[in-house]
Design a protein that fits this description.
Blueprint lengths: L7 H14 L7 H23 L5 H9 L11 H6 L7 H28 L2 H14 L2 H16 L1
Helix pairs in contact: 1-2
Amino acid sequence: MSSHYLKPKLIFDRCSDILIQKRITLPESGTICELIRQSLQFHKQALMSRMSNKLAPETSVLLDSLFTRDYGEQSYRLTLLKRLSQSTKPAKVRECIADFHVIEELYRKLSDALNILQLGHAGVRYYAGSVMLSKVISTLRIHMVIVKLFSA
């Protein structure tokens, strides 16, 4: 279930249901939670090992560029791409179209890395959701750890 990017609570509920259906004595909830945590961690490690030594230097530079600020801007580039305007004003529509072109270019350049990860639609949605909810600083820290792992 961890490779299908289900939320931990949903995994817990499904595990409990399976154990009840098979009439297996339920362990303490902490035991199940720890097994789920270990499984999620193992899956994350498998993804990182799949990517080690396969991330091209230009792809790394491209990812690093998401954590830069343009001159005079206070927000990171990633933060600016996360926000979509619902305005119908021509200037805002043009900005959205420009952002979509940037996202399209990023996707084109990162598609090989995505293929290596074999995330599928559910995996992309899972990680995109975590990026949308995260602060750029914490995402930057995670990115730096990944870059160090790939460099090692």
